[in-house]
Amino acid sequence: MSEVREKAELAKKSSAQLAVLTTEQKNEALSSIARSIERHADRVLEANEQDVQKGIDSGLSKALLDRLQLTDARLKDMVKGLETLIELPDPVGEVLESWERDDGLKIEKVRVPLGVIGMVYEARPNVTVDATGLGLKTGNAMLLRGSSSARHSNTALVDVIRHGLEETDVPVDAVHLVESAERSSVQEMLTLNDLVDVIIPRGGAALIQRVVRESSVPVLETGAGICHIYIDCDARAEMAQDIVVNAKTDRPAVCNAVETVLVHTSWAERHLRSLLELLRERGVDVRGCPRTQSLAPFVKQATEEDWDMEYLDMVLSFKVVDSLREAVAHIHQHGTRHSEGIVTDNRETAEAFLQQVDAACVYHNASTRFTDGFEFGFGAEIGISTQKLHARGPMGLPQLTSYKYVLRGDGHIRGGGPTSC
Amino acid sequence: MSEVREKAELAKKSSAQLAVLTTEQKNEALSSIARSIERHADRVLEANEQDVQKGIDSGLSKALLDRLQLTDARLKDMVKGLETLIELPDPVGEVLESWERDDGLKIEKVRVPLGVIGMVYEARPNVTVDATGLGLKTGNAMLLRGSSSARHSNTALVDVIRHGLEETDVPVDAVHLVESAERSSVQEMLTLNDLVDVIIPRGGAALIQRVVRESSVPVLETGAGICHIYIDCDARAEMAQDIVVNAKTDRPAVCNAVETVLVHTSWAERHLRSLLELLRERGVDVRGCPRTQSLAPFVKQATEEDWDMEYLDMVLSFKVVDSLREAVAHIHQHGTRHSEGIVTDNRETAEAFLQQVDAACVYHNASTRFTDGFEFGFGAEIGISTQKLHARGPMGLPQLTSYKYVLRGDGHIRGGGPTSC
Prior knowledge:
2 copies of one chain form a homodimer.
Chain A: H1 3-19, H2 23-39, H3 41-57, H4 62-68, H5 72-87, E1 95-100, E2 106-113, E3 116-121, H6 126-137, E4 141-145, H7 151-165, E5 175-177, H8 183-189, E6 198-202, H9 205-214, E7 227-231, H10 237-249, E8 258-264, H11 265-281, E9 285-288, H12 290-295, E10 300-301, E11 315-321, H13 324-334, E12 339-343, H14 347-356, E13 361-366, E14 383-385, E15 393-395, E16 401-412
Parallel strand pairs in A: 3-4, 3-6, 4-5, 7-8, 7-12, 8-11, 9-10, 9-11, 12-13
Antiparallel strand pairs in A: 1-2, 2-16, 14-15
Helix pairs in contact in A: 2-5, 2-7, 3-7, 5-6
C-alpha cells in the first residue's frame, strides 16, 4: 500500500473517534500540542535551519526564504494561534434546525465534522500547525502535504504535534504528514475519494489551479483577488482617496488589496490627477488607460494584460469609465469574484452596484482590505473562498464542518404514493 | 468557438440579469413555461415518439424505454411541478446573518444564486423541465446536457421552454441544451470553470462517477444508497419487521431503500426466522451470512460482494452481528453515507448509533424511506447529496444558492497590524 493511502486510512479511522469527542477533549489536545511546541522549540528550529540552508544553497528567492524561516517569535505565534482556537466556540454538535412532521417523526439538522481534510500547501511551515489546530478543533483528521523545501521543518512539527497528542483523547493518527516528495503523491491524495472528504490548497495560483484541475475530491478553492474599486461621479474626493490609498498600500501583497481603480469620467476630471499624484508620492507605480494618461502625463500606459493582473505589489492600474454599467461590465470580465467596492454618496447607485456585482464581498464606501476572517470577527480563518459551493469569502471554523440529519421515530414507516424517491 | 462554450457564455451573461429579478418576475416565467408546455404538448409527444421508436430499434431495455417515454400524464406532472415551485418561497435575497462592527461597518450575509448550473443527465426527459424550474426559481441559468437517446424530446422541451420565456423578464438565454452527442462535449462542460459554477449529474452510478472524476468545476454529487438497518437486541419484533418490510418493499428501485439488514444475535435467535419468512412471502430474494442461513435454510448465501451491492431490487442481505460496535464498523466499511437506521427500545444504544454512524441521514425507529426532499417538507428536491461539502442529504431550493457578503461603510479603512490577510 502506498504511503498516502496508508496514512489516509489511518486518518479516516481516527476521524470516527474524533467526531464524538467533547469540546473539552479537543481543547485539551490543542493545549497539549501548544505545550509540546514550546518544549521542543529547539528541535523545530534546528530542522528549519536545515531547510533554510538547503534553500540558500539551491538559490531560493529572498521572499521564499523569508516565508520558510521559523523564529522564536513565529513559534510563539503558532502557540498563540492554538490558544485562540481553544477560546473559540466549537461548531460541532450545534443543532442548525429541527422540526417535527405531522406524524410525529422528529428531524434534526446537526453540525458534524467534514471527516478527513487534505491540505496541500507551499513553503510556510506555520500552515502545518495552524491548519492542524483548525482541523482538530472542528473534529477533523488532517492529511498534510507541504512542499519539499520545508520538509525537515514540517516533519519536525508533525512529530511534535503527534507527541503532544499522545497524552490526550485525540488519537495520534488524526494528524499525518505525507513525506514523499514525488508529485505523484499529491496526485494520489487528490483522487482518494473514499478516504478524503475535502482538499484545501494553500499557496500560489499555480498550485491552486493544479489542485482544482486534478482533484476528484471536492476542493475548497481559495483563489486570487483581482479587486476593483469604482469611484462614482457622486464620490467625495477625500473619502475615495483614503479608501484607494488604504486598499493599495496597507498591505499590497495580499489578496484583498485593490489592483484596478475604475473612475467615473466626471469625477476623474475634477479629482483624478491629485489622487494619482498622491499615490505616486506614496511609491505606487501607477498605470492607466489613455484617458487617465491625458489627465496625468506621468502615468504609464496600461496594456490589456494589466486588467487581468494580480500585482500583489505597489502597482495600481486606472481606467476612466462613463457609467456604472461600464464599471460593472469591466469587473464582470476581469474580476475574480473576491472583493469589489464602490465609493459614492448616491445610495441608489451604491445599491445597484452591490446587487449587480457578483463577488464574495461587495463594499460601499469602505476599503476592500476588510475581507478577512479576523476583521469579520470569526476569530480564525482557513482562507478566503472564491468559489460558490459550500463557503464563500472568509472561512472560519463552521466552514470546516458539514451536517447530518438525525431522525427519531416510533416505528414510522412511509406509506402512500411515491413523490421523488 | 465550440457549441458548449458559446452556450455557456450566453448562460453566464444571462445569469447576471437573472440574479436581480424579483420573485414575481421569476414566478411569471415559470408559469409561462407551464402554459407553453400545455400549448405545445403535441409537438413534444411527437418528438418523444421519435426517440422511443429509435430506442426500440436499437434494442433499449424495457426499463429504459419506460423512463424515456412521455405521456399526457407525464407532461401534466411537469406542469404541476412548475406550479408547485411557484408556490414555494424564493430563497434568493434572504439575509442569513447581519452584524455591525464596533467601528460602524455593517456586514450582511445575503443569499444569491449560484450562477450557471450545468446538468448532465440520463434518459428521463422530465429532468429537462424539472431542473430548469428549480434553477430558474433560484435565479440560476441552466446549461443542460441530456443523453442522446432522448435528444428529440429534450430539443423539443427546451424549445418549448425558451418559447415560454420569450414573453417574460427571464432572458431566453437562461436555458440552453447542449445538442452535440459527442462525449467530448460533456468533458468540455466539466472544465469550463470560468463559466459554469456547479455541475449536477443525475443518473446511474457510472455517469456520476465519471462526472466526479473528470470535473474541475465543483460537483454536487448525488450518490448511490447502500442503506442499512441495524436491529438491536432491544428492538420490538413487530416494529423491526414493519420497518424492514417498508424500507425494502415500498419502492425497491430507489436510493433510500434498505439493502442490508444487520441483526443482533440475541434478536436473531428469537425473531429472525419469522422476519425472513415474511420477506420471502412478499417476494423478496433473501441472502444471508452463515449464521443467518443456519436459522433459515431457505436463505441463499451472501458473498462478500453482497455487502457492497446497491440492489435497487427486491433483494435483501442479512448479517448477524454480536454488538453495536460490529454493526457500526460494517456500516462504516460498506455504507455509502446515505441513510442508516437502528431499531431499538434502548435510548442509549440508539444515541450511540446516531452519533457514531457517519451518514447524511441517521434514523432511530423509522424507515430509511423518509430520506426525500418532499418527506422532509422542502416542497421540491434536486437530489440527495452523499458528499459533505455544501449540502448533505435531501437538497431543496436553498441548496441551489450561494451567498455573498455586503459591507456598508462610511469611508472605513483598515488600520493597525495585519492579522491573516
